[in-house]
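note to self: the first set is below, dont mix up w the second
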Amino acid sequence: MMEKESKRPPCFKISVPGDDSKKKDVLDKLQHVRSIIVKEMNHPVNNAYILEKVLDEFISTHSLDNSETKMENMNLNTYIQVEKKDVDQQLFVTAETSLQKLLEDKVESVATHFHWAIRNCEQNPKELKDLLINVVEHYKNNHTKCHPDSRCKRDLNYEPKRSTINKPIAEKLLLGVIHKSVIFKSPDHFVLARDTSYVESFNNTMNMFQDKRIVFSDANYNTRACLAVCHWNENVDRGFTSIWNPERRNAPRSMKGKKNYKSPSYSYRNNIWKRQINSIYL
């Protein structure tokens, strides 16, 4: 027996981010507009009619070109499906896209471009911004302004590993991400390209000597801090025996190799003991 076709007309949804108070505010305004329209037309109207009426009124007021705003002239494949928390618009349309596939393989590589630009801008804020903007041109397969030492300039048989950007909306989106970044907005704060690896290394050493789960006395805490400094100074640049190269296709940045360091030395302990003995007997 065939199922009876539903007589309910097709519908669509528009997501509006906000909490209960925002929802109440929007619904109150919607109801207010509904009451005005119903009074004028003398018959009930649905939400779609109200929304269409309001948008038509807005378009006519601002003299917008109808040909630019009609949905049939808009390519919905230029909108990325995102979470509500990541969007600032009060009204938005989302759709799964081919654009997302164009940009999703460039997340880590763009971050690499940022780090490279910081290290090679010669402490010039304008040069840093120019290098960041050129990231878009690089992914458009236009390497005119790429660095002479880059493989895309040196290798005559160079082929992009990632998909090239050939849609204006994709170019605009990537350029917008770059323009909104803190590095692009405040390039003078990043031109020195300071490396934090030594700071992180020292903090790890401090945690070895000062366990956060244990309460130390002031004297014990200060002693452990001094020992941490001695240990770090002696072992910070020690050699390594080999480099481990993991094979992780989905995480290319982790494939740069990890050093297997030699065992740490503890010569500072003997030096401290000798100085203590000498201070007593000499």
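second set (the one i keep forgetting abt)
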Amino acid sequence: MRGQLLKTLFSLMITLLVGSLLTTVIWHDNHLEEFIILKPCFHISVCCRETINKILQGYSTTWKRQEDNYQKFRSQLNSKCHGFEKAIITQYNTPVGSKIWYETEKKRSVQITPDIFSTFIKLHPFSNETKETCAVVGNGGILSNSSCGQTIDSAQFVMRCNLPPLQNGYENHVGVKTDLVTANPSILRDKYGSLMGRRRPFVTNLQVYGSSLLLFPAFSYSFNTAISLRAAYTIEDFKSPSRPIYFNPEYLQRLNTFWRSQGLKEVRLSTGLIMASLALEVCKEVHLYGFWPFTNHPYDLRNLTNHYYDDIQTKTKFHTIPDEFALLLRLHSQGILRIHLEDCPPGKK
């Protein structure tokens, strides 16, 4: 009875304030685990140095893959989320006449018409083929002047987030190879006028991504659907080689539930965490670049911009990026995936 009571007590989060850090102790799989909930540093200070030093204690550049840990975590993720089968809407899993329920608007749905159905990819783009190496490229300022372009491009499969720029010198640091890139509808609204007017600039800017999969969250919110479909029609009308695909909202709901079970509490998962999660299901070895939630570099503490291409701050309060990073850092320390924080030697793959 006493042991059960102690286990119940440990199941509750015990949050301790340590300077600028929050250290959380949880009970998981019959043993205690500790990880850091991180707060971003906004200027160089003793607090910032202490925070970054604490992070680097759990980070090793001489990373070693731990096969048992990877297989166990991947099995848990797959059993809860079924990324291979459910991550992407296809003509096979979503026939004409079926309903798709929105991820965030639980009482709203859309019935699949032949017109909508025609924009679905026929079969799941990943099937059951496991990629050997995957690079998930975030857009963090840590990639600026990193010389990681060739290293990123050497991965078998490269995933990028939110239509990032890859030219005008950026290719040296982030690469150009793209197998999948996400497209947030807010970008289409802000940059391309919701595709209600001239559409050629959108298609022209897609050329840098070649024939990559172009992934839209068309059914996360009802207001995302029409603009995502317009993007798909535009790609078809202009005969662009890009291949539009859509997140399955059921998969996103399952993924949110999974990460909550791991201790993450936020309104919505970031695109970066979603893509890292998908990569963990479809790739044997996952490498993360551009994932760093602080405004100072981990090694020389130089100031970093929010993105490698601009310093525009994220408006939304939906995400808790430092908390996500803490969980990814734990996976790094367990040899499940690798986070790259260091610059890459020029010319090295």
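remember for set 2: The longest helix spans residues 222-237.
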